[in-house]
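pasting for ref. prot 1 ->
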Amino acid sequence: MNTATPRTIEKRITLRAPRSKVWRALTNIEEFCAWFGVAKWEGQFEPGARVRMVMRPEIAGDDDYFIFVEEMRAESLFSWRWHPGMKDPQADYSAEPTTLVVFELKEVAGGTELTITESGFNQLSLARRAKVYQENVGGWNEQAVALERYVAQTP
């Protein structure tokens, strides 16, 4: 993890599940929402899609956000863009650059290695950059645990 300059977060975990199951948990919207903490969504994951998501109130107080799906390569890569961090209701994010989230899957002995990378923090305003970076470092650690628990408990 790069902590010197808030540019990129990288998290690597090995999940004790077949790659097809991990892929489904990442790209099937219902499964993704179950482990990611999403209460409601509008849209489906497919390249070019804009998907609106509303977090569960206990996680982010009904905060909503959009995921802009970039690329989906079956069982190997899923990427999307978003405006990271907790939203400030007073802020207009329409002109702010997004960060790129990439999930890369690789088959390894005993399961699937998943690398989660979020890049582009250096393009965010100085006023938001460090705070959002730290929020997302913690957030990806929590999401990795949630995903690991989810794939262990679902058929």
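and prot 2 ->
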Amino acid sequence: MSAFVWLNGRLCNLDEARISPLDHGLLVGDGVFETLVARQGRPFAAREHWERLVHSCGVTGLKAPPEADCLAAMEAVLKANLLNEARVRVTITSGDGPLGSERGDSEPTMLVSATALKPWPPTERVCLAPWTRNENGALAGVKSTSYGGNVRALAYARARGCGEALLANTRGELCEGTGSNVFVLMGGRLITPPLASGCLAGVTRRLVLKACSEAGIACFEEALPAEAALRCCDEAFLTSSTRDVHPVSQIGERALTPAGPVTGLVAAAFARLAEKMVIATGTPV
């Protein structure tokens, strides 16, 4: 973990950082967050992540920080911790509140932290969790700090030798992972669940769709029966800010060809787009 964090407008040592015991982020999980990566010392896709943070704040009724303040806080944390390739997290909570669900009238809490980016294995094993996403819930599509369901689903996957759990929605359609979006190749068609499935509007998901469009790779946003899709797909991969395009080698007990040809094409297209985005920020490559 980083030695310095940004808390409520200032950089402070981790040992000195204090959040109130009455903060609703702690008491009831009333908050939102963003996870992104730093490439060569600068936050990657910072604008896209800030826009999603603003959306999450709007849905939950929280005050979003200005883009410039958010970027300055991330850059300060990266610099203070001497981090180049890093995992960065911005967390906003509703601040102090009563012990129940009703909010208080305090200012929001804003915390920015970072840690060195750890590599994922070359391929990932996944399984379908027995719980569902509620595509009609109040927090559908919001990157909320209420992550208890994700914690339990990931523990379920880890107990079965997998690194990620996939979830269906209440209609039995493929939705997302606990911290990732999912793409599958079925009948020669590359498909990812639509946002109407209840999945998070992943920034990397959006960039992968853009990269596919630029590379002439057809990709469809379509609802799919979860069990059938995972039983019949020829290739699958996960996307997230820390995973980029991450090939799936096994679904439950079913082995897939790791890093299949379509997955490879998508990974290369995304890498080209990411390189262009890094260059556009003024960071040398």
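The first helix runs from residue 24 to 27.
The chain has two domains: 4-116, 124-276.
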